[in-house]
Hints:
Largest sheet: 2 strands, antiparallel
Strand order of the largest sheet: 1-2
Number of strands: 2
Distance between the termini: 45 Å
Structural class: mainly alpha
Strand content: 5-15%
Helix content: 25-40%
Protein name: HNH endonuclease
InterPro entries: HNH_nuc (IPR003615)
Mean pLDDT: 88
Region (Disordered): 74-101
Domain HNH nuclease: 18-72
Order of helices and strands: HHEEH
Low-confidence stretches: none
Keywords: Endonuclease, Hydrolase, Nuclease
Amino acid sequence: MPWTGSDRRLRLPSDWPVRRLSVLKRDGFQCVAVLRDTGARCTASATDVDHIVPGDDHDLANLQALCRWHHARKSSAEGVAAKRRRVSRRRPEGRHPGDLR
């Protein structure tokens, strides 16, 4: 999700830059994602800090270092899952009960 129009940055704690750097250092500035095909850790440099469990839990235990590619992939999957959970406001398919034809 792009930052434009989002309140996400406002919900980050005031010490976010310190937490972010702490996570990057803890994880060795390397992406912690595990590759599906080999089961090995991604070798790309970590550029982003991500919440393991989505939401506003900014505890260091809930944060992980990811490369841009893995972060985008994870965020996209979370967005798709959230969209599926939303209740549709569309009318059900079929004839409307007020249709007298």
